[in-house]
C-alpha cells in the first residue's frame, strides 16, 4: 500500500512544489540585492547609491575599486538600517577619499540613524563645503539641526533644500510639511511668550 493513498485527495506530497518555490524566492531575493547594490532599482533618494566615477583623483585602480565596494556596502547597510556597519564602510571610504561629498552625506544619515545629531551636522556641513549643490546634504542638515533642537537652523537648511531641489523631487512634499510644522511650532512658541 502506498502511503499517499492514505492522504485525502488534494493533499499530495508538496515537497517538490515547496522546493521550487524556495528556489524562486531565493533567486528573486538575489536579484533584489543585486539591483540595490548597483543602484539601478530601489535607490533611496537620500543615500547616493553609486559612488561617483571620477571622484577619486590620483587613486589607483585598486583603491578606486575598494572605494566603490565600500561605498556600495555602506549604502546597503544604510538601507537595512544597520547604521553602525554603514558608518564603518563610509569611514573607510572617507579614509581613501576624504573629498567625496556623497560619502559625507551618507555618513551623516547613518549618524542620524544612531541619533548622533551633532556629528551628523558636521558631516552634512562638510559635504556642503565640498559641493554647494549637494542638495540632499541640506535635507540631512535640517534633520540633524532639528534633532539638536536648533529649529531656526533646521528651517533655514530645509528652505535651502526646497529652493535648490527640483520641483518634481519626491522629498519636496516631506520638506514642505516639515517646514510648515516647524514654522507653526515657532509661531505658537512666540505667541505663548508674548502672553
Oligomer: single chain
- Could you estimate the helical fraction of the residues in percent? 55-70%
Low-confidence stretches: 38-46
The major pleated sheet works out as:
none
Distance between the termini: 90 Å
Q: Round the Cα radius of gyration to an integer and report it.
A: 23 Å
Overall pLDDT score? 82
Gross morphology is extended
Structural commentary:
The chain is mostly helical. The chain has a domain at 59-194: Tetratricopeptide repeat domain (Serine Threonine Protein Phosphatase 5, Tetratricopeptide repeat). Helix content is 69%, strand content 0%. It has helices at 15-38, 61-79, 83-96, 101-113, 117-130, 135-147, 151-164, 172-194. Helix 2 (61-79) packs parallel to helix 4 (101-113) and helix 3 (83-96) runs antiparallel to helix 4 (101-113). The N and C termini lie far apart (90 Å). The model is unreliable at 38-46 (pLDDT under 50).
Brief summary:
By secondary structure, this protein is mainly α. The chain has helices at residues 15-38, 61-79, 83-96, 101-113, 117-130, 135-147, 151-164, 172-194.
Tell me the layout of helices and strands.
Layout: H1 15-38, H2 61-79, H3 83-96, H4 101-113, H5 117-130, H6 135-147, H7 151-164, H8 172-194
Helix pairs in contact: 2-3, 2-4, 3-4, 4-5, 4-6, 5-6, 6-7, 7-8
Keyword list:
Serine Threonine Protein Phosphatase 5, Tetratricopeptide repeat, mainly alpha, 8 helices, about 200 residues
Amino acid at each position: 500500500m502506498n502511503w499517499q493513498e492514505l492522504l485525502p485527495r488534494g493533499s499530495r506530497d508538496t515537497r517538490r512544489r515547496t522546493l521550487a518555490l524556495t528556489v524562486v524566492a531565493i533567486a528573486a531575493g538575489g536579484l533584489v540585492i543585486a539591483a540595490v547594490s548597483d543602484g539601478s532599482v530601489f535607490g533611496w533618494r537620500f543615500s547616493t547609491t553609486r559612488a561617483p566615477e571620477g571622484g577619486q583623483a590620483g587613486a589607483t585602480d585598486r583603491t578606486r575599486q575598494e572605494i566603490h565596494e565600500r561605498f556600495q556596502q555602506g549604502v546597503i547597510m544604510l538601507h537595512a538600517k544597520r547604521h553602525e556597519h554603514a558608518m564603518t564602510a563610509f569611514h573607510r571610504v572617507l579614509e581613501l577619499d576624504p573629498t567625496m561629498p556623497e560619502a559625507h552625506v551618507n555618513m551623516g544619515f547613518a549618524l542620524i540613524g544612531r541619533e548622533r545629531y551633532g556629528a551628523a551636522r558636521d558631516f552634512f556641513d562638510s559635504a556642503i563645503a565640498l559641493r554647494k549643490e549637494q542638495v540632499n546634504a541640506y535635507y540631512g542638515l535640517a534633520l540633524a539641526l532639528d534633532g539638536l533642537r536648533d529649529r531656526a537652523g533646521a528651517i533655514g537648511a530645509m528652505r535651502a533644500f526646497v529652493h535648490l531641489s527640483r520641483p518634481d523631487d519626491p522629498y519636496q512634499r516631506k520638506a514642505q510639511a516639515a517646514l510648515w510644522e516647524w514654522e507653526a511650532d515657532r509661531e505658537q512658541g512666540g505667541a505663548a511668550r508674548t502672553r
